[in-house]
Amino acid sequence: MHQAIPCSNTRAWPRPADLSAPPPLRHSGGVRQVVQDNPVVVVGRKGCCMSHVVRRLLLGLGVNPTAYEVPTEEEAAVAREVFGSGDVTFPVVFIGGKLLGGLDRLMAVHISGELVPILKAAGALWL
Q: What is the pTM of this model?
């Protein structure tokens, strides 16, 4: 019969904050630099459920998108940097350095069967 390993209360366990995902990308070049450096980028609000849906769809296709999370206080600044105006709804998807659109456009392109060829052309999918 196996014996249980004794529990020690003196061991320091990592706090949940130490186990969290890596922090959102922040580069000196901002969003534009991230878009240029990665084949697929999802720019969205921090903790947004729609950004999660976009990432899950792309992960389901075999693509590992780069997530750029925008804090609430920086939304207008990021929108102006990327689009020249503060009139943008997040999430926004960039493929191959070009703007594809939001969740609605991504779903439309996926349903029509055009998404996989676009991802292959961008080098994000090798199948």
A: 0.75
